[in-house]
Amino acid sequence: xxxxxxxxxxxxxxxxxxxxxxxxxxxxxxxxxxxxxxxxxxxxxxxxxxxxxxxxxxxxxxxxxxxxxxxxxxxxxxxxxxxxxxxxxxxxxxxxxxxxxxxxxxxxxxxxxxxxxxxxxxxxxxxxxxxxxxxxxxxxxxxxxxxxxxxxxxxxxxxxxxxxxxxxxxxxxxxxxxxxxxxxxxxxxxxxxxxxxxxxxxxxxxxxxxxxxxxxxxxxxxxxxxxxxx
Length: 230
Known about the structure:
Blueprint: H1 2-28, H2 34-61, H3 64-82, H4 97-123, H5 128-151, H6 159-183, H7 190-216, H8 221-224
Helix pairs in contact: 1-2, 1-6, 2-3, 3-4, 3-6, 4-5, 6-7
């Protein structure tokens, strides 16, 4: 058992490092060129490995925060990745059963996370509850948006692009958070948990606004990004 945990940990760290390095490459090359697609795919598949290894390590080692981060980060990434396949929601396209299953499961998870955060913060006086509440609230908000997209469709023509940007960057934030809390010692600890969000979210907002301004000027998405997923 210990040998399996050790091997899994090595795999987890290796692919986690790969994800941390390739994520910024994809984020900084926003026009969907070959470099963006290649680095984005490496990031996605590396995070897939990180997700499964993290789930095993969190259960085997009784590490709640690792379980939390694993589900939250991979949920965001899958939603961002699936947005590339769901560009025509509300225009005849319907989400697959796979998409609904992810939304239902993660909605239950985020609700449980909110409840746990309340218990930890108010009944156990542990500041870690703040992190759980923030992650649960953000995740729940994301679930509500998915429900609206799946049932009503996109109200913006290029909404899929913003879902992709938000999901992938949010997933990177979660993975960067996991890295920080594992290698850096700082008190109060919740500062480390929230630092990547505080640093990277403004960049995410900047990128989204940049594209929205260009769309408002009548520039088509195909003129700004290479829309290709294979």
